[in-house]
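User: Teach me something about this protein's shape.
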Amino acid sequence: MTHVSISDLKTNPSEAISESLIYPVAIQKRNKTQAYIVGKDIFEKLVAQMEDLIDAKAVREANFDDVVRFEKVVAELGLDL
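Assistant: First, the predicted structure itself:
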């Protein structure tokens, strides 16, 4: 992992951003990580994976005992499909 000080980040933010496209960059203040910069592709993949995990959990926890057939809902709403 790449480490960049806050002062280096202020001096040359484009370098840190370029590096973050490949791998996350740790932003440090007094040798302690304060934040991370991740590139667009990495961020979008992380978000997609989290959404998939949330969806999978919702399906596992769903109660399918009270399912109402689609045709019944259509008929109750008076829709003509």
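Now, about its shape. The helical segments are 6-11, 13-20, 40-61, 70-77. The beta strands are 2-5, 25-29, 32-37. If you'd like, I can walk through any region in more detail.
User: That's plenty for now, thanks!
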